[in-house]
Specification:
single chain, alpha/beta, Alpha-Beta Plaits, six-stranded mixed sheet, four-stranded antiparallel sheet, 35% helix, globular
Length: 306
């Protein structure tokens, strides 16, 4: 059973002169979700986030956050939202602590010294709290940006491409932090990213948009499981395996083969069935590797004609 709706978008559109950047978009984010917001460049992701944060006004449609309309309850709602939009910016000649102290004052909410240090600890920067931000790596600045978004302890965190430009270690640090915020801090997270593998590792629900409109929305695993997988079987005897398959309907599901590796298009439940069939007929199967991922699904969806 889903929790309360934290974000509810209905028939949302945004026009920039002759360009319709967002076109009748609908989506729902529930309490506790890590919600992946996916789409190719130019799909309308950043425009949607700007409307969510009341930085620009929609041309049509409605936005509700925490069950209340954004248009009429903007100040009350945004007090419960933290966000990173594009690259966070800081005063390079000031320390990490001083930057957060200043940004806390600007937000209009009283932020204690203990809270600043708590946030720095959370994002892994407490040991560098006195260091000038100009000495920080790109990944450290991204984590400090997350710290800024968390200062006022928001219930909803909106992240626009938080791993852009990071190396693999930096990506892992942000991913681990997102998982911690979700599981341990019970935050709802709206994550826009083009790095599909990262979203697959952290999101429980997602939407794919293209040309400003919804293509598909749902639970990540349900959406992935709804389509056939490309599965490779590595076996010990190429000729014997092929001859065995040729006697059955499995041969119709064979896509390709290269020496002892056979590639099939299978439903989820067929993987175990085929493996059992091969083993029972004297074929040693050394590896079974499903190769479909969120990236494959994304490409399939966005390649389809809208």
């Amino acid at each position: 059973m889903n929790g309360d709706k934290i974000i509810e978008i209905n028939s949302l559109s945004k026009n920039f002169k002759d360009l319709r950047a967002v076109n009748s978009l609908n989506l729902n984010v529930f309490e506790g979700d890590v919600f992946g917001f996916l789409g190719p460049n130019g799909a309308g992701k950043s425009t949607t986030i700007r409307m969510l944060l009341s930085l620009i006004k929609p041309s049509e449609g409605s936005i509700k956050l925490f069950g209340k309309t954004l248009e009429k309850n903007r100040i009350e709602i945004l007090k419960k939202v933290g966000a990173i939009v594009e690259k966070p910016d800081f005063y390079g000649y000031l320390s990490a602590y001083k930057n957060l102290e200043i940004l806390g004052r600007i937000s209009g909410k009283e932020i204690s010294k203990n809270r600043i240090m708590e946030v720095l600890e959370l994002v892994g920067l407490s040991k560098r709290f006195k260091s000038k931000v100009k000495t920080f790596s790109h990944g450290m600045k991204q984590r400090l940006g997350l710290g800024q978004a968390l200062l006022h302890n928001p219930d909803l965190i909106i992240l626009d491409e938080p791993t852009t430009g990071l190396d693999p270690q930096g990506m892992k640090e942000i991913r681990d932090l997102i998982l911690h915020l979700s599981k341990d801090q019970k935050k709802t997270i709206f994550l826009s990213s083009h790095i599909l593998h990262e979203v697959e590792l952290v999101a429980n629900r997602m939407i794919i948009i293209n040309k400003g409109t919804t293509r598909v929305e749902g639970y990540v695993q349900d959406l992935l499981n709804a389509r056939k997988l490309s599965v490779s079987f590595e076996v010990n005897d190429e000729e014997k395996t092929y001859n065995l398959l040729a006697q059955t309907g499995w041969i119709k599901k064979l896509e390709s083969r290269a020496k002892t590796v056979f590639m099939f298009m299978l439903e989820n439940n067929e993987i175990a069935e085929l493996n059992k069939y091969l083993v029972e007929n004297g074929i040693a199967v050394s590896a079974v590797i499903p190769t479909r991922s969120l990236e494959d699904y994304f490409l399939k969806i966005t390649d389809e004609v809208v």
